[in-house]
Structures are given as structure tokens and as C-alpha cells.
Amino acid sequence: GDELVASVHRLITHADEVRRLGVRTNADTADDAARARRFGAEGIGLCRTEHMFLGERRESVERLILADDDAEREAALAELEPLQRGDFLELLKAMDGLPVTIRLIDPPLHEFLPSMEELAVKVAVARERGSASEHDVTLLAAVERLHEQNPMLGLRGVRLGLVIPGLFAMQVRAIASAAVELRARGKDPRPEIMIPLVGAVQELQLVRDEVSRVLTEVGVDREIPIGTMIELPRAAVIADQIAEAADFFSFGTNDLTQTTWGFSRDDVEGAFFSRYLEKGIFAVSPFESIDREGVGALVRTGVERGRATKPDLKLGVCGEHGGDPDSIHFFHEVGLDYVSCSPFRIPVARLEAGRAALD
Ligand code: PEP
Ligand code: MG
């Protein structure tokens, strides 16, 4: 047992000496970050901040979504900001001295609201008894207004930030002020801000301007890089333009696979893919291992066009593929700077990054 552990350790140490790819982790909590650090993570490549809006914070989020004037919206954001600040403080502390890419909130809003069907039944039953609460009626109207047939192709990512004033600014203020506080305590926080689901340079430029304005207000404008996910085919194709407004790219190969193939990442398995695999039409799911001809070609295009604009543009990947051995070889070949994967896949990612360099 001990001998095996020692030889695996030697192997990984050797891989670390030869690999060119950095290995970061996807982590949303200080616990995950600390665990990943023990596995050798060299930073966080993706912190999904949407997870921070669940639990008891749902009420404030609901208030934010229901707000129908500036004052109500600002009040809801003011409730969330100190909580977010605490989240980022813990995360940056756990990753002290290492880069932490924090992605601004991404998912469709309806994920924070009750299900339309259940609420409609509740309101209908209450109405029959003449006792429907005003809150539930207003909530139902909002849920109906936000309902989308294809929410993953709808109001999420950068679109949310552009439609709800102050939402991204609140998160950025929380990140920046957490960094200022840690620095005052002698720590070395290294946050990076990442914008999700960008498809047009106009979207990125508008958000970038807002983010920069907040960073200037907090007095940290020069130190915090602002980058974007590349997770839509259009973003990969116009990466030369996008690079003008980005300090770094991180390829979101989950959404990029979904949008390139037109496969719903949430439904594909049950809908038909298991049968594709059974029949041998495909040997492996493109959500597991990078599809080099399609999705991979878009990644390559994004790399080439992005670096044509900015030769030193920092490039990473934070989709599930970042922890998949075959995909890691591909990311090495196309010249990414780092992969980011879940904490438990870090050792394998280090090993494969080393093997890719030796090949
Ligand atoms: C992605 O789309 O690859 C990604 C990393 O973001 P998420 O999985 O959160 O959509
Ligand atoms: Mg995504």
C-alpha cells in the first residue's frame, strides 16, 4: 500500500516537473478550495456564484426578482452584498496567493423561484376558498412572466447582468471589498472576474465598463483581471473582437458542446444518447470527452483568434472536459495555459498534463 502511494506520488511529482498546463479547480466554497489545494490545485478556475444565492438567501433573491422599482431592487441587493462579501472573503482566504476566477451569476432566474405548476395550483385552490395571498399572486405573475420554453437559451449569464441593474455591480463590489479587507490583514488575495455566456462584444464591453467603474470606486481597478467565458459558438468565431475587451478567456465546454451539437445537456442522456451509445453510433458522450472535430475546432478557433488580437491572452478551460484525460491532451495541443476541474480529478489532471507534455 505505502509503496504504491509513494510511487504514484513520484509519478505525479515528475508530471509536475514536465507539464506546461496549469491545473486549477472548480470550487464554490472554502472547504472545496482547501481540499483542492491539498490535491495540488494551483488556483480556482471557476467559482460558480449562483450556488451562493440558494438556501436562506432565496428570500432576498425573490425580492430582487419581484422588485418593481429601483428602491426595492436596491434594498434586496443591499441585503445580499454583505453575504456575498463573506463568501468571497472565505474563498479568497482559502486560496491565498493563488488566482481565483469568480464567475458572475449565470443561471436562469426561474431556478430561484417556485415551480410554476405548483404555485398555480396553490393560488387556484386558495382563490376558490377566497384566501389567495397577495404575495403568492404577485409571485405567480412573475414566475409566468419569466417562464421560458428553453431557459438554457434564455435570460441567463451576461444577459441577466444587462437586464437587472445593479446585480453584477453588487457582486463585483463584494469581491473587490473582500480583497481590500484581506490585503489590509496582510494576505494576498488574487480574484479575477469572469462574465458568462457572452455572444457579442457589445455585451462584454457594457459589463466590462460597469465592472471597471465599480473596481475604480473601491480602488482596485488595476489589480483585478476581467475576462469572459467562451461557451457559445459565436463567441469562439468572433474571439478576435472579444479579446479586445477581455484579459482572459475560459472555455465553457459544457455549454459549448450543448450549443454546437444542439443537444440539451440536461436531457440528452435520457432522451436518446444512451441509445446512441448502445447502438455504437458514438463511442463516448461529447459531454465527457472533447469532440475534436466540432467543439474542439471551435476551441482552436477561439485560441487562434483571441491570441491574434492579444498574443499574451490567458486561456483556460473550466467545463467538465478540463478533468478528462483525452481532453487534457487536446487542451495541451491547442496551447491553453490551464485546465480547471473538480477537486477529486486534480491528481489525474496533473498526471495527464505531464503525459501530454512528454508526448
Ligand atoms: C460550461 O458551460 O462549460 C461551464 C463551465 O459553465 P456551467 O457548467 O456552469 O454552465
Ligand atoms: Mg456554462
UniProtKB/TrEMBL annotation:
It comes from the Bacteria. Residues 7-354 form the PEP-utilising enzyme C-terminal domain. Coiled coil: none annotated. Belongs to the PEP-utilizing enzyme family. This is Pyruvate, phosphate dikinase. It comes from Kribbella aluminosa.
